[in-house]
Amino acid sequence: MGLVAKRRTWWALLALAMAAVILLAFMISLAVSIGEISIPLSTTVKAVSNRLFGTSFELSRIHQGIVWDYRLSRALVAASTGASLALSGVVLQALLRNPLAEPFVLGISAGASTGAVCIMILGLGYGILGLSGGAFLGAVAAFLFVGLLAAGVGGTSERIILCGVAGSQLFNALTSYIVTTSANAEQARGVMFWLLGSMSGVRWPDVYLSGPVAIIGFAVCMAHVRVLDAFIFGTDAAASLGIAVKRAQVVLLGVTAFMTAAVVSIVGSIGFVGLVIPHAARFVVGPSHDRLLPAAALAGAIFMVAADIISRVIVPQQILPIGVVTALFGAPAFALILYRARRTA
Length: 345
Known about the structure:
single chain; mainly alpha; ABC_BtuC-like; transmembrane; transmembrane helix
């Protein structure tokens, strides 16, 4: 009977995963269709077919350019960004055993923003790889700062969160200082809009970066499913199972910084995705990471594509920063999660 129930559970999870994939594909097609110029789905299919398969459907150059060069690349970056942030949140919450852990809270996003702004304003590095490299170094610097500070004050999960808040404030202050002292008015406006989360300048080179980063991050996380499950019970429990705790921490924290840096370098600092999505996915599929990681990645991708659509249509003839949209929806959702946790405690 237990075997039958287990098979039914896995079939239900498979059906849920297929439904999520279909929903993600639908949201991406919706993101391509919606905008100041409405584009039918048939036109989208023709434009993609012309570029991928060399077909010769007759389309205006405007429609072809909007679909392929602007909206499709933007939707794919939104999906990979959401997946990366959600995966980062799952990993950090497991490693630190704290439901509030996520890149934004722990200062990793703030450090990545500082590193990226150094590249943008001071002219260090070149192109998207230079920006990503600066963001990665900033993310690592922020995490090292938070880690050293937490080690000095005791290292409990609550104190790590407080140290993350301190780190966020420090690196946000550094970013503001660099912008204030080194940027002209036009640069300052562009940087501040970008720091709120912007996909306005996203193009295919960003897809070629964000997509592989999300795939590599997902693969590394899935390879450490057993490790993440063990860390839920603490480092001592993980060590008793034969897990190389320090090595696992370095790898998982490194891939978290890697994904966060890539996201920040492309779209800026976006909060609440890595905080809310893991909780929502955990509520649906449970705490086991072999289910939680794929569910969080898909849910994060769907959420970010939906947020991008909303950012383009909520205010007529104006595009809101996507970080504003995620905060508007993420903050109430997180408050609801806290309220439910309080009632079930």
